Amino acid sequence: MFLYGNFENLVAEAYNQFSGNTVKPGVQLTLRPLRITDMFSKALVFAAIGLVHVAIPSGLLAQGSAGTVLRPVRITTPPKLDGILDDEAWAGEPLPLDGWSSYNPMRGEAPAEKTQVWIGYDNEALYFAFRCLDTQPEKIRTTISRRDNAFGDDWVGLSLDSSRAGQLAYHLFVNPSGIQMDALQSGSTGEDFAPDWVWQSAGHVGADGWSAEIRVPLENIRFRSGTDVRMGVLFWRRLSRTGVSASWPEMTPGKWVFESNAIVSFDELQSRRLFEMIPSATFSGNQARSERARWNSTRARGDVGVSVKYGLTSAVTLDATVNPDFSQVESDAFEVEVNQRFPVFFSEKRPFFMEGLGLFNLAG
Questions:
Q1: Do residues 244 and 320 share a domain?
Q2: In this structure, are residues 101 and 108 in contact, taking their beta carbons and an 8 Å threshold?
Q3: Which backbone phi and psi does 59 adopt, to 5 degrees?
Q4: Are residues 44 and 113 in the same domain?
Q5: What is the distance between the alpha carbons of residues 233 and 295, in angstroms, rounded to a whole number?
Q6: 74 plus 60 within the same structural domain
Q7: Is residue 289 part of a domain?
Q8: Backbone φ, ψ for residue 56 (5° rounding)
Q9: Cβ(182)–Cβ(171) under 8 Å?
Q10: Last residue of a domain, one of 253, 269, 285
Q11: Are 91 and 195 in a shared domain?
């Protein structure tokens, strides 16, 4: 069997056949006979195709990881979290976020309504403001519901990859009533709505749409201090009356948060040392009935415990607990199990087990 051309030409030819595209003008084929065995020729063609398959996505990943660099402003007076964007922090122009694009139910369409975003920060927290313009404000849907249960409403939010490691991202969403929805995005296991981060939010419905404010305390996110701290960010908005969800930057097919986010650069941002202590004290008493109409004496019992969370560094957190009181943890939601053939799983809500939750949730 004969193959003609050198290895680079073989790669180009394999790319043309399997992708339907054409190599760039200027590629010259030098016809030079090369006698090789049939088995080796198949291996060579397969290797060439493999190189094309690997090289093309890697270029796209590099382009997506570079992204747009956003420069937030350092604010001197923290905004009042009431959902009304009349604070000094939001007096400037919004970020130049052109190119919002839908991802559900249709992909790649320009949204019908405009969304404006501001970012600010100080030594205590990161601040985000959203103005969601709406030509039909009377059709804005909002409810007062439990946490993580307002995805049927209008909502807006962001995904923050604070360490830019491409492994974890914080999802923070809010509806026009200020109801929070949050999740942890892991590159291996996907979204987990069990964690409930400590952050503040507020919403307000006006004559031209609605607005929202979000405050993220620095001690609750993981990042490395420095003069140019860079994080990945992606913004979201859902318009409930049309059922359309859009994002900025655009999420291209086959990619997710870590490959689609833009870069936000903070000047002189220092991480804050995390310290939490939750003491607990409980008292209980019980009686037992050994004979009919007779109870034994009451047996009283007291329990004291404490849970401590301390940030040793921006990447290492000490979590310790002694005799934890899990009776105060949010109870499991009611589930109907009639004719249920599969086991019911509940989200983890115990504080001690929330730190580093993604390390123990393995894919599959």
A1: no
A2: yes
A3: -65, -40
A4: no
A5: 63
A6: no
A7: yes
A8: -65, -50
A9: yes
A10: 269
A11: yes
DSSP, res 258: H
What distance, in Å, lies between the first and last C-alpha atoms of the chain? 45
334: DSSP letter: P
Instruction: Give the tens place of pLDDT for each residue, 17-66.
Output: 444 444 443 444 333 443 434 433 443 333 333 333 333 232 223 333 33
The answer on 121 and 48 residing in a single domain is: no
Tokens of 119: 């970012």
| pLDDT digits 0-9 by tens, 263-301 | 999 999 988 877 888 888 888 888 777 777 677 777 888
**Helix, strand, or coil here: 313?**
coil
Let me know if residue 62 belongs to a domain. yes
Cα gap 326→329, rounded to integer Å = 5
- Mapping DSSP to helix (H, G, I), strand (E, B) and coil, where does residue 160 land? strand
233 forms bridges with which residues in the sheet?
Answer: 160, 262
Here the tokens at position 252 are 């291209």
CATH code assigned at 113: 2.60.40.1190
Domain hosting 240: range is 69-269
**DSSP notation for 127-196:** EEEEEEE-S-GGG-------TT--TTS-EEEEEEETT-SSSEEEEEEE-TT--EEEEEEETTTEEE----
CA dist., res. 303 & res. 325, Å (int): 9
Task: Give yes or no: residues 240 and 147 share one domain.
Answer: yes
Eight-class DSSP state of 255 = -
pLDDT band at 224 (very low <50, low <70, confident <90, very high): confident
What gap in Å lies between CA 353 and CA 328, rounded to an integer? 15
pTM for the predicted model, two decimal places: 0.68
**How many domains, the chain?**
3
Chain center to CA of 341: 32
pLDDT in tens, 138-183: 999 999 998 999 999 999 999 999 988 888 889 999 999 999 999 9
Domain termination residue (choose one: 234, 251, 269) = 269
pLDDT grade, residue 302 (50/70/90)? Answer: confident
Q: What confidence score (pLDDT) does residue 31 get?
A: 38
Q: Is residue 364 part of a domain?
A: no
Residue range 101-138, pLDDT digits in tens = 999 999 889 999 999 999 999 999 999 999 999 999 99
